[in-house]
Amino acid sequence: MSEIRSDPANAAGVPADQPVEQALGTLLLTGVVAAAAVVLIGGVLFLLRHGNEPTDLRVFHGEPADLRSPTGIFADALEMRSRGIIQLGILMLMATPVARVLFSVFAFARQRDWVYVVITLIVLAVLVYSMFSGYEG
């Protein structure tokens, strides 16, 4: 009597979605590690350049205007400004789950699982909307 499997498998007995899960895991790990490395580099540069400056905690100083948009962040990072590099790492960290969802759309489409394609596209739309609809006041 043959064993009934709840998940489709290939001839080698490996579940069909295991390579996709491994790729997603690698994508997340690579994104987080790369973002952490960029933030670390920016942090070290910041401490080397500004580590001995006194800090005034009586008045809150927000981010400069050039670090409030992705184009400004990229420009500052290219000029090797430490705050821009740190912000670039944070943008990379934010982009990691978005890349995961985008990859999932293509993986589900390749498997012709259209219900999950639609659900994942809705999740992607919510993520993109939440990132770009911030308060500008």
Summarize this entry quickly.
This protein has 137 residues and is an all-alpha fold. It has one domain (18-132). The chain has helices spanning 18-50, 70-78, 82-110, 114-132.
Question: In words, what does this structure look like?
Answer:
The protein has one domain (about 20-130). The protein is about 65% helix and about 0% strand. It is built from four helices and no strands. With about 140 residues, it is mainly α.
Count up the domains. Answer: 1
State the total count of DSSP E strands: 0
Q: Helix count, per DSSP?
A: 4
Structural class: mainly alpha
Radius of gyration: 21 Å
Describe the SSE topology.
Layout: H1 18-50, H2 70-78, H3 82-110, H4 114-132
Helix pairs in contact: 1-3, 2-3, 3-4
List keywords for this structure.
elongated; mainly alpha; 137 residues; 4 helices; disordered N terminus
